[in-house]
């Protein structure tokens, strides 16, 4: 009697799982249509054993840009928000900044004025905020900032400026045996402290720009010091290079939103067998931001042309996404 | 009736699995004793939920040196065997090598004479054999070589010069939720073509020394060209740097065999919570090679001292390993 009840329970549970799997839409924030179908069609094709398009699990590598692809990037990269915040925190230790650009402008709240100094100004801001501490100290600083930082326009927590449809897409791909990687122009050490929590992507699957590190042994205590020197820029033609260095295997699917992602998509598309390339097109001025060919951030011009020519999937945020940001828990 | 037979089958299978799991020793090539116990004791401790030493799966990172730790490295690094082989293959296209060192000596079979030119000679040999082709061409070249290469002393296939006890250890750690990485001074592009097949370690979990890569687009066909310029040396203090760049998380267990691994072990040991560091000590002149403090390859001097001082596990190949190489299928 006990055993037959056990069996009944097991069978009901199994039945429940089957029904559930059929009923649940893994991409509920995506509107039905061509875009969504292109994604699910590709995944079904490469995961179907015995099909000519079948791809073994080990080769199911998917790479995602971060800024503008997984979370927002307007009105400025969030890593720059972090850097500006850090300048404010560090200012009391640097009285000389009051008379020194780009810091003088920044401390008066004039971000535009500070960034008018171009790459040189930006490099100085990044250097003072991203080096001179150990990797572990930097991780703690980033975690503290991201736990409380708010977006300057939407006032939402920065951690909730991620795109809900892309969070679902990441989970959907992983449920189908894909390994999901970030391949971003952003700082690798800036992203790793929170990508696992927000995207389910562990630090070892994050590729990004990096500064040089120095091994130091002080009183038998080893540390890695962040130096004010660029080691690698993971943007444009740097993206396939970063992919090769970190992953060593060509992705079969790649996701971006700007011309900075074009080489990653080209590299992905040029491999043998089934391939999937997708651009997120920022078309929703009401719910997010609308920008492409003329934007100073996340410019998408060549990429749009190539996507059209090659038949890559282009997501219109306005038309293809039911919701953009995760619903906030009250 | 059918269902009760099904249940009986399920229960018997389950019972079989339990019995099997108890009976099977995951490390059959390791002799019983203190060394083996130190490994299993650590793994049991960190995987026991609720224990103060429990480590979540995501943090179970284990890093392994390759040369001398996972496969042999005498009488010379196998990557050097590969390079010397390639010099022979390429020689017909380079008539000038007949009068040019280090190639002239090499082509006469005088390896020692060729390497008498020191780092400069070695750099030239590596440059001509490891650059000037795309990453995909190089992968094919390495795969072709390793499929047939034989060890100069044992005459065994190079692929069978791996240490059977370490293969078991890798599998045992993975079965317990560890992610296993190679962190080697060897070339990352030289290792990746075969680590998955031999060690079960996918390319994205291989960290090594690397040369610079260049993105090229020729007639719409993208490729990554291997340049004759060093990008990163993953040895000594480079190992913790490579770990941080590629993994972004400190290992909780590290395995090496030489002073080149010392900083990796120190970095691993210095983290909070339970830690495991192990040195493979080459003590078996009969079944493998015996060398340590005075060796020109895989020197182990400082490491032996530090292991003794810190209580790290030191494997004596002679005493702790029942077999060294996998038994050859006839």
SSE arrangement of chain A, N to C: HHEHHHHHHEHEEHEHEEHEH
Oligomer, anyone? Answer: homodimer
What is the helix content of chain A? 40-55%
Report the average pLDDT across residues of chain A: 93
Number of helices of chain A: 13
User: Biggest protein-protein interface?
Assistant: A-B, 39 and 39 residues
Labels describing this entry:
alpha/beta; homodimer; 330 residues; 8-stranded mixed beta sheet
Question: What's the layout of helices and strands?
Answer:
The structure is a homodimer of 330-residue chains.
Chain A: H1 2-23, H2 34-47, E1 61-64, H3 78-90, H4 103-107, H5 111-115, H6 118-130, H7 135-148, H8 164-175, E2 179-187, H9 188-199, E3 206-218, E4 221-232, H10 238-246, E5 253-256, H11 262-269, E6 276-283, E7 290-291, H12 302-310, E8 313-316, H13 317-320
Helix pairs in contact in A: 3-6, 7-9
Description:
Two copies of one chain form a homodimer. With 330 residues, chain A is of the alpha/beta class. Helices cover 42% and strands 17% of the residues of chain A. In chain A, strands 1, 2, 3, 4, 5, 6, 7 and 8 form an eight-stranded mixed sheet that branches. In chain A, helix 9 links the parallel strand 2 and strand 3.
